[in-house]
Amino acid sequence: ISVGNLVVIFENFDSSNFCYAEKGKIFNNRNGHFHHDDFIGKPYGCKIRSRNNRGWGFVYLLKPTPELWSQSLNHRTQIIHFLDASMIVFYLNIRPNMVICESGTGSGALSHCIMRSIAPKGMLHTYEFNQQRAETAKLEFANNGVSHISEVHHKDVCGKHGPGGFDRPQSSVDAIVLDLPEPWSAVPYAAHCIKPNSRIVSYSPCVEQAQKTIIAMKTSGFHSIKTMEFRLKENYVDE
Ligand SMILES: C[S@@+](CC[C@H](N)C(=O)[O-])C[C@H]1O[C@@H](n2cnc3c(N)ncnc32)[C@H](O)[C@@H]1O
């Protein structure tokens, strides 16, 4: 771990946090006080003991992945968690060097999953109409070293406040993800900029939203539409 590196601080399976390693700084949590100076020069994955509490407290310093980042980031909105995020990336066939559009950016959780898959030379155009969230996402992408494969647009893609859409050339985008309260309003704009025979996903928590979005998709020429829900079932198996 070097100065400036992003470190995911694993406290336990229900709680993790993050910091950027900086000389002289201290990370405090309920487990104790952890000095960044103790992080620098250590390998990712190591266990660090608190300097107070006679070293009873400890954390693990983990190398960031989109999944760990989603668990530790500051939630500004609801986020798409790893199960749904992985199915979205899979069903959209997202691959290295693709151009992807996403709206809204929200907390940037899904954005990081997409960026991992389009690296090293792809581009994620992500659109957010809340200015504060757009600025925070832009800053986080820069701090996390992914601003070369992302562009954050402060924009209402549904066109209620000014012209909507994605401002991309016609038939130029490889895949589109919508995580919006009114995705059906963005679908005609998505149809304009997506490449022929490419895929769109709309992520909605309720069936009424899905119904309206399906109608908009059919009207805009999309076909073979599927509605899916994913559930993770863990099995605990003893020897
Ligand atoms: C549920 S959050 C997205 C979370 C994101 N997928 C993640 O994983 O972090 C929805 C976001 O869409 C934004 N939004 C809602 N309507 C919008 C619109 N018309 N244009 C752009 N962004 C919009 C909201 O401000 C909010 O930040």
UniProtKB/TrEMBL annotation:
Its main location: nucleus. It is found in: Nucleus. Its EC number is 2.1.1.220. GO terms for biological process: tRNA methylation. Keywords: Methyltransferase, Nucleus, S-adenosyl-L-methionine, Transferase, tRNA processing. Residues 57-237 form the tRNA (adenine(58)-N(1))-methyltransferase catalytic subunit TRM61 C-terminal domain. S-adenosyl-L-methionine binds at residues 107-110, 128, 179. One of its GO terms (cellular component) is tRNA (m1A) methyltransferase complex. Gene3D superfamilies: 3.10.330.20, Vaccinia Virus protein VP39. One of its GO terms (molecular function) is tRNA (adenine(58)-N1)-methyltransferase activity. PANTHER family: TRNA (ADENINE(58)-N(1))-METHYLTRANSFERASE (PTHR12133), TRNA (ADENINE(58)-N(1))-METHYLTRANSFERASE CATALYTIC SUBUNIT TRMT61A (PTHR12133:SF2). This is tRNA (adenine(58)-N(1))-methyltransferase. It comes from Fragilariopsis cylindrus CCMP1102.
